[in-house]
Amino acid sequence: MPKHRTEDTHEPRPRTGTRPDRPRPRHRKPARALGRFVPLVAAGVVLASGGALAAELGDSATSDPAHALGAASGGNVLTAAELDAARQEQLSRGGGRRVLEVEQRDARMVARLEARAERLQARRERERKRRAAERERRQALAEARAWRPPLTGYDITATFGQSSSLWSTVHTGVDLAAPSGMPVTSTAPGTVTFAGYDGAYGYKVVVEHENGTATWYAHLASLSVNVGEVVSHHTVVGPVGSTGNVTGPHLHLEVRPTGGEPVDPVAALAGQGVHL
Ligand SMILES: [Zn+2]
Predict the structure, then answer these.
(1) What pLDDT does 24 receive?
(2) Is the separation of the CB atoms in 256 and 216 below 8 Å?
């Protein structure tokens, strides 16, 4: 029994004894060990192809590693083609593992990239919604602050500065003729500072706006707001009427910057984007 050869080293060692009693599997050696034998394959082939030669070599040849390979193969020396096939098989297996590892690594990378893309997408979506909400808020604010005509339909029958026997001085506002009962709305947000009857003005509402400008709504049929009420351009201050010194139903609109003397409402409202 050869005791100089161990299973764990797989290294052929010079033999001085007889051939092993037990044949060994042909492919028991790992490719790594087989690879080392490849340069010796030629010698092995020689031995395999010439049994007589091996016999001639006798024990004197057992010190040759190639001969040891033959012995380790149970006496059947691997041919060059078989060794090459074994190497290729092992290489392909190793290559397969590497391919698998690369594929797994790529899959992990793809998963990470997809997760990142999803996070980016979610962030973009949140940002888009935030901007949309901000835009809506600004639009709502702009809408709330907007100035609008006080009537949906009218004819200008008297302009600012006109002279008429109806007025003690020149005309202090603009007359917007409209059917009785048509809702008169505030031209802009503000606070009602007057709501009552005022002689020639008839029923009158005064709204003071954010910039200090006051708008007057006169000849109303009645009053729809009270002093101190906060209004917007949606708020109806009263219906068109013909109270006070008038010849017919219309809205007398005045604009008085910072509570001062009246100015031309057409020009003043144009400054706020409202073109009467
Ligand atoms: Zn008037």
Answers:
(1) 56
(2) yes
